[in-house]
Design brief:
alpha/beta; 8 helices; about 190 residues; seven-stranded mixed sheet
């Protein structure tokens, strides 16, 4: 359905995330992937969705030569926990400490998605609350030893083993925690028809 409506648009997904790329395939739209490296640094005074909005827009800003029918989509996700942004872990120890800090607590997964054309730039965001039960150090170690957590904000993937055994409650969009609020992205893409 969306494929036909967007047939005159060139949808560009600027994300290396396999999960976001899979979501776009599942939306059944034609898109290309274009990546440009940027340093993901944000001003210290930014909080929560201000951070993800800033980073999604920063990722879009480096694309300066868009054609008339291009719709560029960038995205950024953080885990917001106890007033602090948890991004991707630096190493094993960092990942271990992140998961320990999330144990038996509720945090927010915040994803911003930026849509850029020649005419305008718009950013949307979604916040999902995720509650972990108490996770043993042994379970954390098992997860880190057997799954790839280094490309994930907060050091975990909800769709993986840790999500199955440790998440006791989720309020909001599941897809958002995986990597993108697909329902909102779909609605926004309909505006470009």
């Amino acid at each position: 359905m969306l494929r036909e409506k967007l047939q005159h648009k060139n949808i560009i997904l600027a994300s290396g995330s396999p999960r976001r790329q899979q979501y776009f395939k599942e939306l059944d739209i034609d898109f290309t992937i274009q990546l440009k490296e940027i340093e993901e640094v944000f001003p210290n005074h930014l909080k929560a969705e201000e951070i993800t909005n800033f980073l999604a827009e920063l990722k879009a800003a480096v694309f300066t030569n868009l054609n008339e029918n291009d719709v560029l989509i960038t995205s950024d996700t953080i885990v917001w926990h106890e007033g602090k942004a948890l991004g991707k872990p630096k190493d094993y120890q960092d990942a271990f400490e992140m998961l320990q800090s999330l144990s038996a607590k509720t945090h927010e997964v915040i994803t911003s998605v930026c849509f850029k054309t020649n005419a305008k730039t718009e950013t949307i965001f979604e916040i999902t609350k995720v509650t972990f039960k108490k996770i043993s150090d042994e379970a954390i170690a098992y997860y880190l030893d057997n799954y790839k957590q280094f490309d994930k904000a907060g050091s975990y993937g909800i769709q993986e083993w840790i999500g199955l055994i440790a998440i006791s409650k989720i309020e909001g969009s599941y897809a958002n925690v995986v990597g993108m609020p697909v329902d909102k992205v779909y609605d926004k893409l309909l505006e470009y028809v």
